[in-house]
Amino acid sequence: MGIRRREFLTTSTAVLWALGHAARAADPVGPQLIVDTHQHLWVRDQIDPPWVGGAAGILRLSYGPAEYREATRGLNVRSIYMEIAAAEADLDREAETAIAWCGAKNSTMVGAIIGGRPSSDAFGDYIARHAASKSVQGVRQVLHAGTPPGTCLDPKFVAGMRVLGERGLTFDLCMRPGELLDGAKLAAQCPETRFVIDHCGNADPKAFLKGDVAGKPSHSADDWKRAMERLAALPNTVCKISGLVARAPLVWDAEVLAPVINHCLEVFGPDRVIFGSDWPVCLTRATLQQWVAALREIISSRPAADQEKLWSGNALRMYKLSIT
Q1: Which CATH class is domain 5-318?
Q2: Residue-wise over 276-287: b if at least 16 C-beta within 10 A, else e?
Q3: What does R_g of the chain's alpha carbons equal in angstroms?
């Protein structure tokens, strides 16, 4: 379960090299409120997600609230826990752990998106057990990796989405870019449920780069744009500006990420975009603070009111959060 010291040092050296050549903007420190709607935590001797063992070395460590506090030192951050693709047998325990973290003394975690299996016959009971907590804001089941294409259009899955809508809970759509149109069909069938499009639709920034790039993108820029426009046309969708640095080339800067981010901001508009760090997954390319700095650079020319909505205002409104 653990990572060997030599392996960790080797991986860390590569990551630090990447960070040293990555985001050129200075690390940000300031009073601006940031609501991080995509914070992962895993403490492996408590809940060990099945995918972590095969992940990049830096992700095989444990990351809990203390590590997140250190990662956000100097920032005025409140966070929403994002489920970690735990094994199905661990879903209840993961939800209970996240709820407990939200309620801990001096916690900056203000909500949780818990894991779930919407197609399961037991999904309604599962939601009833945990939705009683005001900390639970929504559900996610990752729809890429080993999930068959078309899963989200299965009638039982659609029924699960409607259960969430009835309870005022959201669903995070995290799916392959080539299946985003399925996400649009799902959202159209469930107008009372709000769908959050994770990671800018899992866009690959390399699809927008000119010339030869290492690693062929899984989609074209035009196909992704059209799919995101289809999703944005539905009033019950929101785009999460997150996850891009983990898909960026080894050496990147704000300019590499800007085409994806700017398209999302344009088609979803200033009132339907929220920020997510995707920490600690972002560490494969950048620190959380470098990602924040890069995004600040990209949106710096936009109206201050629109920037505030992205960083915190939209999330506060959407999740009905009260920050003290």
Answers
A1: alpha beta
A2: bbbbbbbbbbbb
A3: 19
